[in-house]
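Study this:
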Amino acid sequence: MKSLMFLLILCCSLTTLPAQEPLSQDEALKQLYNQYDPATETAQWVCTKGQLIPSPYSEGWPCRKEDTNVSVSVLLMAEVQEDKAEKIYLVASAKPASDPSGYDCHACDPAIGVAVFTWQAEHWVLQSANAATGFWGGWGSPPYVDFVTVGPSKYGLILSLDNEGQGFASSYKVLLVPADKTVSNVWSIEDEQDDYGAYDPTDKFAIHVKYRSTAAIKFIGSDENANDRNDYYDIEVISRGNDMPGTSHRLKDENWTEIYRFSNGKYRLIQHKNYLEIKKPTKPH
């Protein structure tokens, strides 16, 4: 009888708990973009300050009346626990919906938007949002997005950007982090470059010096540095290789290690050390 009574009490207590309703992509996009229409997956674009700067220094697409209607696509949506609160991260891209060329060119970068929602008072509340954290990608396609841990209870997004032309290739990383009511670019770095596609020692007009450099990126936890009180981990970048800056045709070593620390809304360089490989002397035969 006692077991039956306990079961009845347990069932009653469970039924009184508030249910955490799922947040649909359409509802999230309606809060990130102006007049988002789920049927057409389009929204009305609000031009950024960077778009209003005269060319060639402007960003994104020209801020014309015919380009105010943009098509929107979701790149990532993840639910996590952060600072003892349930949160949802949404990443999306936007580009002109009526561009005659289909917005398909090397410099056609879509706008990357991010929204962060938190579960409060039994519903999802928009905490941070930025429909245009920047214009990144190429050929109308957005960059690859990684969801990363940037602190003991902090999350961010790393965009991986590849650029290739005339045989030269490079790769960039951009870190987006929510702060207060917006989402910002807090750190970026070129992590790869090479000229392998342009190198040809048999062609007198081609590049005759081959170079390549690549960097590994690591978030350092509080048990690995003295930055225990910071809400954000440090970033360690380890680079190896060489490049050929300018037109000197001379290789420059890119063997170094750098440490970046979050301060005043940005990751800032606090340490740079060059790496020198010392070869052991060979023993005489």
